[in-house]
Records
---
Amino acid sequence: MNFKEKVQNGCNIIGTHVNLIDANITEIFGKLGYDYIWVDLEHTRISMDNLYEHILAARTTGTPVIVRVPVNDLTVTKRTLEMGVDGIVFPMIRDAKHAEELLSWTLYPPYGTRGCGPKGAVSYGIDSEKEYYGEGHLKMCRFVQIEQKSAADDAENIASIPYLDGCILGMHDLSGSIGKLGDIFCEDNLELANKSIKAFKAHNKTVGVSTFATDAETLMRYKDMGINMISTGADYDYVIRGAKATLNTMKNEVRF
């Protein structure tokens, strides 16, 4: 199955986060065998040029790329789509109306309001634009992040939106939206998360989570909640932990 089919069938899929500029990171992750690579434009200084390099690096390994775009940024969203990404993630969704507006940016008429201008998405005209304007552009995955209480409360309506492939829980921001930032497994936050999971599962749509946690206990907890798409870890954290371990070895074991 390709990435879209895995998402639509609710398969367990594993991804990791790219926050740094160097596309060699994406190439390495791709060769390791992740199901997809999440490139973040919301919280990083990755430019559009950097993004394109990450996409090209991922393609050399055959690994799908999903991109989290900045909040409510039509221009960045359009430019990301024209690169031919495998999936797009819209953060900080408020409610179903907000989600519908953002999803419309990714869909050509009569499905939505996306402006014509595919570039990399149709190999600069080598592939058929006519086919892409029809069924072709629907092959990309579309996700929204549930990280606001208002979105969780409206999860049933959000989950019913056509061409939306799933939601991705942002447990930290979700906890912040109820005044309990960082207490991600508190009862109130879990109630909102489970409400979202139930709604999307009822519509046979994928439920994901984005977490920098990499410990088995936390990840197993997410799995047991019914989450089937886990984006875990981050490039900079892998570097820090590896560098710390080496330094610790040199100082405390080698006693250098």
Note: The chain has twelve helices and eight strands.
---
Amino acid sequence: TTLDILMGVSEDNLDVECYAKDGAEKFAKQLDKSISISFLQCSKLGGGIRGSLICTIYLILLTLLFSLPLGIGGSIYLVLYAKEGKFKTIITNMIDATSGIPSIIFGFVGLIIFVPFVSVFTDINGYSLLAGALTMTLVLLPTIIKTTSEALKEVPSTYMASSLALGASKTQTDFKIIVNGAKSGIFAALILGIGRALGEATAVSMVCG
């Protein structure tokens, strides 16, 4: 909720109304020029679900903007490019472990890392949607990576062999055949990510307020 202040001030024998919603600087300048205050009216605005709905939509869009490229790109690398070995095993185990971390831990990480990070590069101090989106990106990445990876693995290996036999390059085969064949699984990862973002309340409240 927000507090809207309506104040009547006398300036050069004229009654002028000024509003707090016009900005603190304008409000203060109007008070400096005034001779007397004729009346003061405070009204409490807000309530309802409109603000929450709008913030939720913005948060989801910002989160998907960061998490989808990272998640899909990470899945393509792990399934199609990464060689079997300790490095791939460590990365896979870290992704599995991250998916089991409680949301309050993500909120704590966002509070001590992303909130100061955003304040350094923007004029925003404290809670912000951008810090919340970065925090939710960490929450969604394991879900998106694991779901997309399983979808890529389900594409028959004969598709790749046939494409390479017809003269297509490895990159063309990966992105035009394999990724295109897994698009239904990638869409499922998108839906699961949105559902996870909608269900996270603790981490969002710690970072976004």
Note: The first strand starts at residue 2 and ends at 11.
---
Amino acid sequence: MSVSRIIHFSLVLLLGFAQAAVVSAGQWLEAARPMMGTEVRVELWAGDTARGRALQDAAFEEVARLDRMMNPMNTGSALSWINREAGNSPVPLSAELFEVLQRALHYSRLSGGAFDVSFASAGRLYDYRGETAPDADLLEQARASIDYRDILIDPEASTVRFGQPGMALDLGGIAKGYAVDRAIEILSRGGIRSAVVSAGGDSRILGDLGDRPRMIGIRHPRREGEFAAVIPLADTAISTSGDYERFFIRDGVRYHHILDPATGKSADTLQSVSIIAPRAVDSDALSTTVFVLGLEPGLALVNSLPGIDAVIVDSNGKLHYSEDLLLNTTAVSYTHLRA
């Protein structure tokens, strides 16, 4: 495990978390805007306030541009065009969509289909605000259209088409991570050496706080305002997928947005998965992948990937760590820390 990525791993007192977040006034700039169905935050250290604000604006604009491109709820987006037309003929891809789809298919193949952006064929049948789920027959019809192997990309022509009718794509498990990475690239090119960009559960840390790492809290899946763990990180990304993000409970069953592509139903063996990786596009996709795979297969996958680590909360609320993290901590249960 790279020392530059994880200085050390431990559960810490909230006091330590608060102290690590303190930076001299007037230099650490923070801003947040609603985007990509969540809140996007851009925080950075800038010697020149005006320059720092300009770079924040540029980072937000990049995220907004990608949101307009990859939001399936926007009927004018490139992704909506793909969902409408790719069942009939090949659809041209922008460089960004080509890259994201290629990366998504990489994780689909790596996980045997546990990660599959065509889950949207079933996912669009759920209404979490309205607390409605599809009946068994409708869900089975939709599930038959979920198959990453029918997302057919032509690298030479840079096009995509669907191998069967009824397919639809949703990049919600990878697009936010990709957008976070692009925002960090903009800040880095602009000369920023210390920053954090987050979009919901996806964050990437550029540099550190000067003399110490950034403290990142992993939300307690069942206790709002508390952390399951706090991790010191520098120059890395972390993404958390949990069954508490978009959900409703009916007849004792928790329906949430992380669907198992094999069934079209909510994966139900874990409460949350946090993945630490060099890039947010990978931590984002892998947090969903591991959540669907479950504890033992998910840890086996993470342990097979160099430079990737995981913190998993199982259905009973117990913490589990990937091998590299386990070597650096003796913690086996929650630390109850107020946010």
Note: The chain has ten helices and 16 strands.
---
Amino acid sequence: DAKLRATMRAEIKKLHRTVETTMIYVTHDQVEAMTLADRIVIMDQGKIQQIGTPMEVYNTPANKFVAGFIGSPEMNFIKSKDGITLGIRPEDIYLSGSADIEKGKNIKAVVEVVEPLGAETLLIALYDGTRITAKLNGLITLEAGAEVKLTLDMSHAHLFDKDGQRV
């Protein structure tokens, strides 16, 4: 249950602070990893993909695996014709005109699903055959099938080569 998990995370964090010693905590839950860790080791198929602080791993993922693993909802990946994949987090996508973005790329997408979460809304849309998710502030009332203009904040974009490594 989500409430119990949140309470247990807080208790584990307090225990760690009290005992002042190294603790190793193994989890598949990235929220637990981000909130409890001083350093995170991301593994795939038994191989280390990246080691760093939670924010280092979140802000500068070493590869597409790490980028897709850390963050909720997960990072969007948009393939280009030249083999580079653009990665952008849902919170770095806005309805066009709703944010003052210095380095933005505007795209047109078709709404598939709108998920109101109270203080924010998840917008799932199709752009050029790729499903993308935007995490928008507030309650957004759009209907499935509507065309929207979205702005990608390119100052927070990530590029990955054809092998999935960060460029």
Note: The beta strands are 40-44, 47-52, 76-79, 85-88, 93-95, 104-116, 120-127, 130-137, 147-153, 158-160.
